[in-house]
Specification:
about 110 residues; mainly alpha; Arc Repressor Mutant, subunit A; 2 domains; 6 helices; about 65% helix
């Protein structure tokens, strides 16, 4: 335990001996790839809202459909923009249109 504390204090990383440096590097690479993908970091609710944004649904309509207040929708949209490194609503809409498959009334993707 003392060795672990010393390593961390010196700015190094520590995992139990059962883990190799290759395991750590692989894990870090996986996290970086997930961050670049963006959508892997989203919650189920954020994905729902992103889908509705892609469909052109307003915040008020999203709130009604999901039985949440408009302010909550706005918070989710803000979180989406932060997680996806987007600057504004136009970027969010563009991302949604590019990345989210849109379904018709029957649920078939178009």
């Amino acid at each position: 335990m003392i060795d672990a504390i010393r390593r961390i204090h010196l700015g190094s990383r520590y995992l139990p001996p059962a883990y190799s440096e290759a395991d750590i590097d692989s894990f870090i690479e996986t996290i970086k790839n997930s961050a670049n993908n963006g959508s892997a970091l989203l919650t189920r609710r954020e994905r729902q809202i992103l889908q509705l944004v892609a469909e052109g649904t307003s915040n008020g309509e999203i709130g009604s459909r999901l039985s949440i207040i408009t302010r909550t929708v706005e918070v989710h949209r803000s979180n989406l923009m932060r997680k996806l490194s987007l600057r504004n609503s136009a970027d969010l809409i563009r991302y949604a249109l590019e990345k989210v498959p849109i379904a018709d009334e029957t649920g078939r993707k178009i």
